[in-house]
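Retry 2 of 3 after timeout on previous attempt. Resubmitting C-alpha cells to design endpoint.
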C-alpha cells in the first residue's frame, strides 16, 4: 500500500508540474514522444526508435524557438 501511495503522489506531482508549464497539445505530443523513445528506455527499443526520438527532439526545439521572447 505504501508503494502505491508513493507512486500516486509522484504521478500527482508530475501532473502538477506539467500543468504549471502550460504547454499546448503539440508540445505535449513532442514531450511524450521523447519520453517514450528517449533515455531510460531499453537499448533495443531505443536503437529501433532513435530516428523518431531525434526528430521529435529537434521538432520540439524548433517549435520552442518559434515562440516570441524565447532565449
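Retry 2 succeeded. Sequence:
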Amino acid at each position: 500500500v505504501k508503494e502505491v501511495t508513493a507512486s500516486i503522489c509522484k504521478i500527482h506531482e508530475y501532473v502538477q508540474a506539467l500543468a504549471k508549464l502550460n504547454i499546448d497539445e503539440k508540445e505535449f505530443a513532442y514531450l511524450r514522444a521523447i519520453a517514450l523513445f528517449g533515455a531510460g528506455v531499453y537499448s533495443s527499443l531505443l536503437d529501433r526508435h532513435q530516428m523518431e526520438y531525434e526528430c521529435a527532439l529537434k521538432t520540439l526545439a524548433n517549435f520552442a524557438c518559434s515562440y516570441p521572447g524565447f532565449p
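Attempt log closed. Residues 25 and 53 are 18 Å apart (CA to CA).
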